[in-house]
Amino acid sequence: MGCSASLPERSSNQLGRGNSENGGGQDAKNLRVKLVLLGDSGVGKSCIVLRFVRGQFDPTSKVTVGASFLSQTIALQDSTTVKFEIWDTAGQERYASLAPLYYRGAAVAVVVYDITSLESFNKAQYWVKELQKHGSSDIVLALVGNKADLHEQREVPIQDGIEYAEKNGMFFIETSAKTADNINELFEEIAKRLPRPSTN
Amino acid sequence: MAGFCFSLPHNVEPMRDSYGFALRPQHAQSYRQYASIYKEEEGERADKWRRFLEQTVKSSQSCSSEGKLEEISKAKDSDIKEETSSGSLSEGNDFSIRKSCEGTEIEEETSAERVSEGRDLSLEKSCEGTKVEGETGAELVSEGNDLSGRKSFKGTEIGEQTNLERQREADAETKEGKEGTVPARVSEGNDSIGKKSVSDGSTASSSEKEVHYLEERKARKVQTWGEIRPSLAAVEKLMRNHVKKAKKIEVEQTNGKYDNLPSIEESEHLEVVSEDIVGEKVCTKEMLDNSINDAREGNALEDNDSPEFHSHLKELETLVQGGVPKDLRGEVWQAFVGVKTRRVESYYEDLLAQESDSGERKEQDDSSGALGKWRKQIEKDISRTFPGHPALDENGRNSLRRLLIAYARHNPSVGYCQAMNFFAGLLLLLMPEENAFWALVGIIDDYFEGYYTEQMVESQVDQLVFEELLRERFPKLVNHLDYLGVQVAWITGPWFLSIFVNMIPWESVLRVWDVLLFEGNRVMLFRTALALMDLYGPALVTTKDAGDATTLLQSLAGSTFDSSQLVFTACVSFLAVSEARLEELREKHRPSVLVVVEERSKKGRIWKDSKGLASKLHSFKHDPGSLVEEMKTNEGDGMENAGDKSQLKSHSSNLDELLHSLNVDSEVDSLPDLQEQVVWLKVELCRMLEEKRSTIIRAEELETALMEMVKQDNRRELSARVEQLEREVAELQEALADKKLQETAMLQVLIRVEQEQKVTEDARRRAEQDLAAQKYVVHMLQEKYDKAMASINEMEKRVLMAESMLEATLQYESGQSKALSPRGDRIPSPRVEIPPPKSRLLNFGLGWRERNKGKPNNEEERRESQCNERSESRTL
Ligand SMILES: Nc1nc2c(ncn2[C@@H]2O[C@H](COP(=O)(O)OP(=O)(O)OP(=O)(O)O)[C@@H](O)[C@H]2O)c(=O)[nH]1
Ligand SMILES: [Mg+2]
């Protein structure tokens, strides 16, 4: 929150310890993380979440109105667990005015585009800028090019995604909710990049 | 075999409820449980509604004539026998009959009636005043009214087109009128969507219908309008207040601007005349077309004041809260929303015609214009609207597409917003396409004005209002959610935006919609959300983290199958949540939303032309003209919408006040013109409001952070104490265990000591016995010794005697020998030899006795000390 300066002395001592805001976990072994998915409508945000949480792909997914919530816990090799509290938001432009409600205080933001749509890539860049300006300062950002299975219809070269992500200090991956390619990897990588709460 | 079939992949299809909507697998069980309850409730409410309709129809037949009664009885027969009859049937009778037969075939008949009813109402129209029609015309145009030139152009366009259309329509109607049964077919055929949702329709009739439908499609492209059954006219009449209110506002807004426009309702008027030729039922007109009656102010007022009207309205309200019967729902909803009153003949067709006309221009639109953007979004969403629903086949989807595009054209301030696809889809399942269009218009333009616009201002305001209400009603719950870091709006935002579609089970959605559409505002939205919180709050306060709370609330809401409980809780427990109260709260919260929205839209522009607000403000101060121009162009290119307009208005009124109070300070004075001052002040004001808001937010954040920390702090302290106590307890327990060990050891020692003591005692007793025995022995020996001594003494006496005798003998002998020999020399030597044995014997006897005298005492002492020594060593 970055508000320690004006806090009474007693409490400001506490600030150094935990990071309970930001959705950060409580102890070093079991992290709890608020994650928000952003991106143009139809890029497959809901499909990615459903694939990750339920292991299914429904080609006839429903339009997301407002936002919807799902959570999933994964175990890492170092025997820590990470519980993702995922907010899947609505993609239509006008719903962007509600987005701050969801990305505020999120520890992770996953910005998704559709590799077959240049427009969705542009939209993704808009989101990245917005998050850099208004998200938490230590937010972990990931850029995801979805629908990688449709490579014949590719409009966004993978190199563009990589470069943009690198320039903005983001993690980048191309996924397919349809084939499940890289879906688990996406979340595992995010989990590894999370700032761990100090052990004391 | 069946089992095998189910294992096939394509049969993984989700289970569907009686409306054809997919059920989540985890809800299948609960749904089955509630299905029978729903059925039971349905039966009950069907009876109630039938009675109500019969009664109100009777009482509303103020002009009751024999003709009508005759008609009713006629209706009964024809209803059953002539399936395709377009006879002018009416009244609740058809309803009651249908109830008893319960099938789609009969439902189709009713739709046939709808059209025929159109003819009746047309009679009515023939005696309507033109002034009323003028109002309706104005209403039509009003959606696109004021400010932008583009919109007013559109308005005129519509006017012109309808004008032309009117002529065409009139011709067509005359023709159809002569043919008699054709109009019936039209609505019948187009009803197919509604019909399909009720899957138990007979195949024969539906295929027959399909044919008619196709025929009709050829004849007239999109005639998809159907009148609601006449028996519901009473309901329509009761509902007219809502509709009229909305209308009045629109009329006011457009007042004067479009006087020259030809009244669109005239087209109906003409149609009416032509239909007039076919049948004359002068009396039925009043009863059948109440919506037209509504427009007659005087008449309406008269009716409104009657106590009967109120009692009917009250009764209707109760009925609605109990649920609208399934097969009436589509039409009752139309009556609630005032579809008939809203409808402007051929308006819908014209919107669609524009769409197909612009077919060539589409490419252009798609790349730039807003319409292209909406069209694209609609296309993305069509297949994601109730996917797999049996009614949303190819035709169903086409209807949905047409409906949404027509709406986007109709109201560009909203255009298309995700969520509307679900509303349109739902309406299409319940009514013909054009009816669904007007219902959607009513819902989005009226009930949810400002909700789905580009900035979604009202939906954000409503969330703030809801949070305040929730805080007021359930402070504990809100505190808990605050503590967990859950914002209520995360969850309730989607509830409100989707009007609960996909958020709670369908039966409950429909029941909520029943009440919401009846009430004509968003009060039911709040009441339902509060009811859900009421129902699930107790479970929510037990959750431990934000994720669990959200998951729980979402899934509990999703399993609210008890629709009656939900609706009754909403309507009874939260009766106090009224529109007036909501309006009050909205007024309070709106400014903060507007500030953020304004800031955001500014940022949006900045993002586009990468020019900072600061620099703009700066340049404005030096060169005010440029920004004003910019503002103007922004207004011109459609950035502003209805919501924004009201916001501008409220801002400018604020600013006016501000200007007055400022009494024009020097800086302002130096600015060239008043409008620029307003613009500048607006910008300043916004900035200040934004600053204030962010300060407030910051303060709040700090406060919550502080609270959280205090809580955490307490927790830490407590847990530290607990830990310490636990440690102490552990230590104590250890000590206790040690003590116990020691105790057992001591016990063992004690036992051993006791045993030893016993042994010692025994030994002592034995020793004492020994001693006694020895004493006895000593005593015996003493006696023996005494005897021996006595015999020794006697022997000594005898020895003495013997000696003296010997001496005497010797002396005699010596005397004799002296006499015989010299005396002395020889006699002393034997005497010296004799004494030693005597003294030696004596000495021995005395010495032994001496020694034995001290011995017994010594012996006893020694033993005793020995025993003591031994027991002592054992004790140690
Ligand atoms: N081929 C392919 N199609 C996908 C993939 N992911 C999603 N889709 C399709 O894209 C469509 C949209 O997916 P959604 O997940 O609903 O999109 P969304 O981003 O949630 O959209 P909004 O809810 O409108 O914001 C779906 O109909 C899927 O069939 C993918 O990885 N490959
Ligand atoms: Mg989605």
TrEMBL record, chain A:
Nucleotide-binding found in the keyword field: yes
SMART domains: RAB (SM00175), RAS (SM00173), RHO (SM00174)
Name of the protein this chain belongs to: Uncharacterized protein
Presence of keyword Heme: no
Region (Disordered) location: 1-26
Single GO molecular function: GTP binding
Species for this entry: Acacia crassicarpa
Entry keywords, A to Z: Nucleotide-binding
Pfam families: Ras
InterPro entries attached to this UniProt entry: P-loop_NTPase (IPR027417), Small_GTP-bd (IPR005225), Small_GTPase (IPR001806)
Regions of compositional bias (Polar residues) in chain numbering: 9-20
Transmembrane spans: none
Automatic annotation (TrEMBL), chain B:
A molecular function (GO) term: small GTPase binding
Keywords: Coiled coil
Signal peptide: none
Basic and acidic residues compositional bias, start-end: 67-84, 111-134, 163-179, 848-876
SUPFAM superfamilies noted in UniProt: Ypt/Rab-GAP domain of gyp1p
Coiled coil: 708-798
Domain Rab-GAP TBC, residue spans: 323-520
SMART domains: TBC (SM00164)
Segments of this protein annotated with the region Disordered: 57-212, 813-876
Matching PANTHER family: RAB GTPASE-ACTIVATING PROTEIN 1-LIKE (PTHR47219), TBC1 DOMAIN FAMILY MEMBER 2B (PTHR47219:SF20)
Record's protein name: Rab-GAP TBC domain-containing protein
